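Possible regression after last week's pipeline update?

I re-ran a chain I had predicted before the update to compare outputs. Posting the input and the new output here so someone can diff against the archived version. Not blocking, just want to make sure nothing changed silently.
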Amino acid sequence: MRFLFVHQNFPGQYKHLALHLARTGHTVAAIGEKPNLLRGRSSLPGIQLMGYEFAPGPANGPDAGVIAALARGRAAAAAAAALHREGLRPDIVFAHPGWGEATFLKDVFPQARLVLYCEFFYRSAGSDVGFDAEYAARPETILGLRVRNAPFLMALDAADAGVAPTIWQRLQFPARYWPQIRVVHDGIDTDAVTPDAHARFAVPGSDLVLTRADEVVTYVARNLEPYRGFHSFMRAIPEIQRRRPRARIVVVGGDEVSYSPRPPRGETYRQRLLREMAGAIDHSRLHMLERIPYADYLALLRVSAAHVYLTYPFVLSWSMLEAMSVGAAVIGSRTPPVEEVIADGENGLLADFFSPSDLAGKVQAVLEDAALAQALRTGARRTIVERYDLRRVCLPQQLALAEELASAAVAA
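New output (post-update):
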């Protein structure tokens, strides 16, 4: 079969599927923003790459996002048309609609089955918006959500199917689209993301090497921001340190903003929370790191005695599932995306997102009760292997969907 993947930062969520299809003899092409493709092309053997150039233009005004999405959609369509002129006739097009690239693909390849990655649909209530009163959305932001969803709706109107990684993410989309959206996770490579009782983590900038013999509390996010509960975790640190005097807390993340309101120019959430907690934290037992290489990140998860994952009702991070896959004892926020995976007391513990005391108490419970910690570790690993394993669960589901859609296309 012939496949086309469209994602501004390809491979993105399509890495494992696209590479598997290319390795097994299928024709695979991909469209993405040219600089992103150039950075990653060495790791994408067997895939024909077509980059597009995109100038977002002015970012002012309430409709700037959808205007940029339409421009990106036209750029992606031009790249698709170039592949069409070269003779590509994909049977299936997989596309992420979040940035507008999927908008016109069906017009270029009307015979192809278009499958969207349904990551998130914004709502004015019941999910991320309005969840955290400290960072309340402004009225114009709430009104702008309909505009923000426009690229999703235009793509959904043209799509043949959708894939959402979790049930909760699927349910964020309008009910009329639920029948065409399957729940299939991207998958966790449980053969590589494994437990290791002998793991060691060297703390950058120091001579300190942490192992499973240490009392390591970890928090990891792509960026340290409210959407991922950074402020809630920082406010829990004094209580965690008071309850567990031997605990070493390791925080990893960047200082950009992925989803949250942007702080004033020149300020980061890291700076803001460190200033707020000045005098309340023992910094000799707190290690605040920038982003680290993936191998080091896995080593850190493997030495973690208690791993904290917090999130608004929003997209579920791979990091929580990877922490569970290495057998970490996870304390997650009692929010819908986390509750879909963690059964409190069985494969992790759940804590109130907004309660530093509750969070500290759950961390303490894991650190002082070895039997509980081991039961949670075992349950966490089992959950990921049984429900989210890449090669034995998720990739076969993705391939089955592709076969089904291809067969339907032939029948039509």
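Follow-up from reviewer: compared with the archived run. The chain is about 40% helix and 15% strand. Marking as no regression found.
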